[in-house]
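# nightly structure sweep
# worker-07 picked up a monomer target from the shared queue
# config: single-sequence mode, recycle default, output format = structure tokens
# input follows
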Amino acid sequence: MALVKIEGVSKVFKEASLPVQALTSIHVEIQKGEFTAFCGPSGSGKTTLLNLIGCLDRPSEGKVHLENEEVSSLAQGKLATIRRRKIGFIFQDFNLIPTLTVRENIEYVLWLQGETESLRRQKSKALAERFGIGKLLSRRPAQISRGQQQRVACARAIIHKPLLIIGDELTANLDHKTGAELMDFIKKLNREEGLTFLYATHDPIMMERASRVVRMQDGRIIDGKG
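# output follows
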């Protein structure tokens, strides 16, 4: 059974009252444990597709299945619960909360889930050590480097052990060396823990490290849909 199944999905946005076709008749399946890159130029639809898979938006047509459950027609409250419990997000601009410490940012999803403080602290400390940011837990995002901020974002995305992790242009704000190191680390997590990882990119570094590349153009999959 596929972890993610996309059936005939299209997405239309309205801009200045004019329809813009972002996706057209997408069919794709993602198996558990995949490390998949969605590649294509700006405007190809890759981020829109990941937003649908991540329950951040709904398709105009077609169905999105997660763990054999159709999520494309669920109420917003149910979608929020799925995002909180089953999906981890790593955003291009990190989306760290500036007023919180590194520890509090990493623990944020667990706090939303109602985990006890002692368990949150235990998990965040162990994960921060693994990500090489254990000495930064009391600092705030503005007090650490961009590469360290990205590691904080990654730790936050996996601390609740989601079924699926979604990333958008993860290396866009990083230099070549830092970006390569980050991707090697995430790839290691994929191998060791079987994390399913999907990400949008046009960066050759990111494409090279993917186990599968799905190429998109003009809102359609042109190669690698599987």
